[in-house]
C-alpha cells in the first residue's frame, strides 16, 4: 500500500481560512479542518501544538487577504487614500466573516498596537494631499477611519446594502469636509 500523502502546514492554514471565510473564527477547529482536508486530526496536531497557534496563523492569512483588498491598485480611478478606504469597505462586503474576525473581535486581552507607526504610509498620503503636518494628518486619518470603519461594519453585519457609487460619494464628502475643517483650523492659528 502506498504511503499516505503528507498534509502540509500550508494546506492546514488554507483549509482553516476557507472555514473562517464561510462561518467565522468559531468554525475553525481541529475536526472541521481535518474533515475539510479529508484526514484525521493527527496531521493538524502534528503541525500545531494548540488550536490557538493555528488560529494565529489563520488570522495572519486573513490579514493578508485584507491587505490585498486595501491595495490602492485594486481601486482603479480612485486617489490612493480613498482607494484604501474603498478596499476596506469592499473587504467587509465580500468577506464579512473575515472582516468581523479581524476588525470586530474583542481585543481586550491583546497587546495594544502602535496604529500610528502601522499607518505611516497613509498618514504620508494625507500630508501630501492636504498639506497638513504629521500630527494633524494623524488626527485627520483617525476621524476618517472611524467613518470608514462604521460603513464597513454596517456592511459586514448586513445592516445596510449600499452600492459602490453611494459609498464613494460619502467618502469624498467626508474627506472634503474634514479637509475644509482642518484648513480652517490651521488658518486660525
Topology:
Elements: H1 9-23, H2 30-37, H3 42-47, H4 51-69, H5 80-94, H6 96-103, H7 115-118, H8 120-130, H9 134-156, H10 164-188
Helix pairs in contact: 1-2, 1-4, 4-6, 5-6, 5-9, 8-9, 9-10
Task: Provide the number of structural domains.
Answer: 2
The helix/strand order is: HHHHHHHHHH
Radius of gyration: 20 Å
Structural class: mainly alpha
Number of helices: 10
What is the tally of beta strands?
0
Mean of residue pLDDT values: 92
Sum up the overall morphology in one term. elongated
Tell me the β content.
under 5%
Largest sheet: none
- Specify the helix fraction band: over 70%
Distance between the termini: 81 Å
Instruction: Outline the low-pLDDT stretches.
Output: none
Structural notes for this entry:
The chain has 189 residues and is mostly helical. The protein folds into two domains: 62 residues, Arc Repressor Mutant, subunit A (Orthogonal Bundle), CATH 1.10.10; 120 residues. 71% of the residues lie in helices and 0% in strands. It has ten helices and no strands. α5 runs parallel beside α9 and α8 packs across α9. The model has no long low-confidence stretch (mean pLDDT 92).
Describe the structure concisely.
71% of the residues lie in helices and 0% in strands. The chain is an all-alpha fold and 189 residues long. It has two domains: 1-62, Arc Repressor Mutant, subunit A (Orthogonal Bundle), CATH 1.10.10; 70-189.
Amino acid at each position: 500500500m502506498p504511503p499516505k500523502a503528507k498534509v502540509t502546514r500550508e494546506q492546514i492554514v488554507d483549509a482553516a481560512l476557507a472555514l473562517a471565510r464561510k462561518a467565522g473564527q468559531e468554525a475553525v477547529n481541529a475536526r472541521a479542518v481535518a474533515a475539510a482536508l479529508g484526514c484525521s486530526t493527527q496531521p493538524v496536531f502534528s503541525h500545531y501544538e494548540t488550536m490557538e497557534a493555528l488560529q494565529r496563523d489563520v488570522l495572519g492569512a486573513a490579514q493578508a487577504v485584507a491587505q490585498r483588498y486595501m491595495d490602492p491598485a485594486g481601486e482603479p480611478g480612485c486617489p490612493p487614500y480613498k482607494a484604501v478606504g474603498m478596499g476596506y469597505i469592499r473587504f467587509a462586503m465580500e468577506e464579512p466573516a473575515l472582516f468581523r474576525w479581524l476588525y470586530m473581535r474583542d481585543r481586550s486581552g491583546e497587546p495594544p498596537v502602535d496604529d500610528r507607526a502601522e499607518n505611516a504610509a497613509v498618514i504620508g498620503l494625507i500630508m501630501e494631499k492636504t498639506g497638513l503636518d504629521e500630527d494633524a494628518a494623524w488626527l485627520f486619518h483617525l476621524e476618517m477611519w472611524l467613518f470608514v470603519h462604521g460603513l464597513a461594519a454596517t456592511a459586514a453585519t448586513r445592516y445596510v446594502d449600499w452600492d459602490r457609487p453611494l459609498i464613494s460619494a460619502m467618502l469624498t464628502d467626508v474627506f472634503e469636509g474634514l479637509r475644509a475643517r482642518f484648513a480652517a483650523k490651521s488658518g486660525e492659528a
